Write the structure tokens for this entry.
Amino acid sequence: MAADCRRRSGDLARYITTDQTVRDMDLFRSLLGVRRITYYGPSYATMIGAYYATEFPQRVERVVLDSNIAFTGSWEAFMTGQPMSFQRRFEQDFLPWLALHDSVYHYGTTAAAAKAHWEDSPSPPPARPGRRPRHPR
């Protein structure tokens, strides 16, 4: 992935780094005339937020880091693990929810049945605006 990025972006690639992103964020903060920022960062953006708060602690009001990734790994390691994470959420969260709402989506009353139907279907169930089933409490 890194080689493709370098090949496609030429000399620009060396400037597309976490460090440069954080410095760009601080430039935007300055241009907006804001003394301190409030930051929300999900997934990979947790690394950006943590890096910014470490680099410029005096310029941070509040930081929320949601669904953190491991800050010790590489971008490639993160990208390698991402599909496994999505699959886990699909199997452990989405399929049971889909089965629970079989009366709406008709994909089966068990997670296994919903998965089999999902994999046999050419496309996901159609969106039905305004008809979002509620999760039981």
Notes: The radius of gyration is 21 Å. The longest strand covers residues 60-66. Residues 88 and 94 are 9 Å apart (CA to CA). The chain has a mean pLDDT of 86.
